[in-house]
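User: tokens in, sequence out, please.
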């Protein structure tokens, strides 16, 4: 997006209606990336169940002359005059619009900035921080001149510059400025000079993560394991200052405090980092899953101070620069202190930036760092703190009279009605990251309090606090759900129905983690941060399982593919299950002809489904999982052959094939097609599946939706009797192409295939397939 070349269309009708009219004029947009949009809460299509319509569309045009000519035509049309000869068809296009104008102050003020300013109170600090994201020219000298000019103008506006950042790889150039609350309120009236500087593309509230946890019902640790020889870390936690000497964490951490946050952080406020480290190293203590045999690398990004118990990222720094510096420090660490780390847990999100369609700068940074340094970022979807209204329920006793299905339907319907306001938080939209939502599950066995409402009785359902997808370009986000603690709700009876408010985790619900008041404290917590931390724990477990299955030489050969392998295996373990079947009948649209829209909505809730790690860590007589790796360049392909069990020949029994393809992609922030590497897989068998299965649309995301990110997960089922010969194989072809111009570098990927038959079948498919695998591990570049 180049604001200096942008023209703004204020829509009077839906985006699709405008596009149809534009295409009739030959103005064809080949991809949604040509449109940038800002959602307007007042411009709302009630027929689309919570989907905010785009009130503005931004289109980049070649030059200022083109802008002037278009504005001239609009002026003629809007004054009621006839358009010049040859421009008659533009009249139909203009009929869809309220206004056409050049990029201006109202475009620089982002919707999230307007919401933030409207919520500023009079209490507390009299200052407010904002990020000025500058027009990025791509020429260092020109960018430097622009900043110098801007700094002079900012001084006139009584704004203090706190920090600057210049990351050309993601076309990011920004200033962090502090202004008075009185000056901030002028922004809403578009009166502040900050909105009229040509160098400024956007004004946003400071990107910031916060945690204000204050757990209740402290319990005590009975015993902990000490004296275990721990291996070097392979996972990093970028999070809050923690209690290093807690019995569950002591001796298990490698700490990097590059921002010098620990020195001023009160011990009794170090909740978030302590909880995340506890979950990664030990899981939910109530489940007694055992400790990892590896250390955890930790960088501090979040801390409270003597003046506030709220943990925040540094308020005088641009958060992107903090993250960028943290990754660079990690990559400089020696092996024993973090040099082997390939997974980074980021259980943080920008509280001021719920995802609204455009890729955030933070998301661009995550994608760049993942590709540049071959890293897997595991990111939390974000917690929805707002309450939920149940219009048809006046008193909580009404809920006790509902069946489980009736109660589930009530809550699902209420959430769907507010989907547009319950989205994931940036940077969860990053395409190379694995984004994790929370499922309604924990290890707490205590009966719920009668004063709290539990929405679901099934752990397969997403937690009400979990941010919903989809992601960038309507990709699957979050990709998976993981245990995030049961979220129970307190309530307020209002004239408009029952208003539910998230309750504090305590003895009745939540995941058990290390506390901060003493070295033996245990508390409970809930949220998508927990889900991401447990997914990071799963990543370490998968890594160590792979090490045990391969020789040292073989493991070194697959090491460059570890981010793709681990991301793929985590997703491979997921499925919609019973929650998907319920949502199929519960979510709109109910019209059978609109099944694709309905499945997309299910995907918003479930992604690819809830993780079940046992499915990829353990094979059985009836289930076998196979792994292939490779690297592809533009227009390249790799062919994989998987043996088939002859014992199934001619038998009519239920069978399932699950295929997952995972990779990291370079990105092009300045171009129309952001994701540079498109991978896909196809079966090589021209006469259909050789094992009698086909893709089942009803229990997974739509085919095209699953191909918009960097992990594809497909489930095939069937029970046809098919002949299988002695040497028959399932052939899967992995293909690679680029969306943009130029050649791709080699793209590492992982292909995971699971073949499973019904437990009732008298056959050991695992042994049959294992005995037929003779090929060496594939890890060559194929093109």
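Assistant: Sequence out:
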């Amino acid at each position: 997006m180049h604001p200096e070349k942008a023209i703004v269309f204020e829509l009077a009708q839906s985006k699709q209606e405008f596009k149809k009219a534009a295409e009739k004029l030959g103005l064809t947009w080949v991809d949604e990336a040509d449109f940038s949009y800002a959602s307007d809460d007042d411009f709302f299509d009630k027929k689309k169940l919570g989907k905010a319509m785009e009130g503005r569309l931004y289109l980049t045009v070649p030059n200022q002359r083109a802008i002037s000519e278009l504005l001239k035509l609009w002026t003629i049309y809007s004054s009621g005059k006839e358009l010049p000869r040859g421009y008659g068809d533009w009249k139909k296009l203009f009929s869809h619009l309220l206004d056409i104008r050049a990029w201006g102050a109202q475009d620089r003020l982002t919707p999230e900035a307007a919401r933030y300013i409207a919520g500023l109170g009079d209490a507390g600090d009299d200052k407010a921080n904002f990020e000025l994201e500058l027009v990025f020219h791509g020429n260092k000298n020109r960018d430097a001149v622009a900043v110098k000019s801007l700094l002079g103008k900012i001084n006139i506006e009584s704004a203090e510059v706190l920090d600057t950042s210049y990351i050309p790889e993601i076309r990011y150039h920004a200033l962090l400025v502090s202004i008075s609350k009185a000056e901030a309120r002028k922004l809403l009236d578009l009166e502040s000079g900050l909105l009229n500087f040509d160098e400024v593309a956007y004004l946003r509230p400071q990107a910031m993560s916060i945690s204000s946890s204050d757990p209740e019902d402290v319990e005590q640790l009975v015993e902990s394991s000490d004296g275990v020889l721990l291996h070097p870390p392979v996972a990093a936690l970028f999070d809050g200052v923690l209690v290093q000497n807690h019995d569950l964490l002591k001796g298990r951490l490698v700490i990097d405090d590059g921002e010098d946050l620990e020195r001023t952080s009160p011990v009794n406020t170090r909740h978030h980092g302590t909880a995340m480290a506890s979950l990664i190293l030990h899981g939910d203590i109530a489940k007694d899953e055992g400790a990892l045999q590896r250390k955890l690398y930790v960088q501090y990004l979040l801390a409270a101070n003597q003046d506030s118990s709220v943990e925040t990222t540094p308020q005088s720094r641009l958060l992107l620069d903090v993250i960028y510096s943290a990754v660079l420090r990690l990559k400089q660490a020696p092996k024993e202190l973090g040099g082997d780390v390939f997974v980074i847990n980021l259980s943080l999100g920008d509280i001021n930036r719920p995802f609204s369609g455009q890729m955030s700068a933070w998301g661009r940074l995550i994608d760049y760092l993942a590709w540049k340094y071959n890293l897997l970022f595991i990111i939390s979807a974000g917690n929805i703190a707002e309450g939920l209204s149940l219009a048809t329920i006046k008193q909580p006793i009404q809920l006790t009279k509902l069946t489980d299905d009736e109660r589930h339907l009530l809550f699902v319907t209420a959430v769907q009605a507010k989907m547009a306001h319950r989205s994931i938080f940036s940077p969860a939209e990053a395409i190379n990251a694995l984004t994790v939502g929370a499922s309604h599950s924990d290890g707490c066995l205590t009966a719920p309090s009668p004063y709290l409402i539990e929405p679901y009785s099934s752990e397969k359902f997403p937690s009400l606090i979990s941010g919903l997808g989809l992601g960038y370009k309507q990709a699957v986000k979050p990709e998976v759900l993981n245990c995030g603690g049961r979220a129970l709700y307190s309530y307020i009876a209002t004239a408009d129905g029952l208003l539910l408010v998230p309750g504090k985790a305590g003895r009745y619900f939540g995941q058990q983690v290390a506390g901060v008041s003493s070295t033996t404290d245990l508390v409970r917590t809930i949220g998508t941060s927990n889900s991401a931390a447990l997914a990071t724990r799963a990543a370490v477990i998968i890594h160590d399982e792979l090490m045990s299955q391969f020789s040292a030489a073989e493991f070194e050969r697959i090491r460059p593919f570890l981010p793709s392998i681990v991301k793929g295996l985590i997703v491979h373990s997921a499925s919609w299950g019973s929650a998907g079947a319920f949502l199929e009948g519960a979510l709109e649209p109910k019209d059978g002809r609109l099944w694709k829209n309905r499945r997309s909505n299910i995907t918003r809730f479930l992604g690819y489904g809830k993780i079940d790690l046992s499915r990829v860590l353990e094979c059985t007589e009836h289930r076998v999982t196979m792994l292939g790796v490779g690297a592809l360049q533009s227009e390249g392909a790799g062919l994989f052959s998987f043996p088939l069990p002859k014992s199934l020949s001619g038998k009519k029994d239920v069978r399932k094939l699950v295929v997952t393809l995972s990779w990291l992609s370079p990105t092009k922030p300045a171009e129309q097609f952001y994701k540079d590497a498109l991978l896909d897989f196809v079966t090589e068998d021209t006469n259909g599946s050789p094992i009698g299965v086909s893709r089942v649309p009803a229990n997974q995301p739509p085919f095209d939706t699953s191909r918009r990110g960097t992990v594809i997960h497909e489930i095939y089922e069937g029970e046809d009797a098919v002949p299988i010969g002695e040497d028959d194989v399932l052939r899967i072809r992995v293909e690679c192409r680029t969306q943009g111009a130029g050649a791709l570098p080699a793209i590492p990927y992982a292909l995971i295939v699971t073949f499973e038959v019904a437990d009732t079948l008298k056959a050991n498919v695992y042994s049959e397939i294992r005995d037929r695998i003779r090929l060496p591990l594939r890890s060559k570049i194929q093109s």
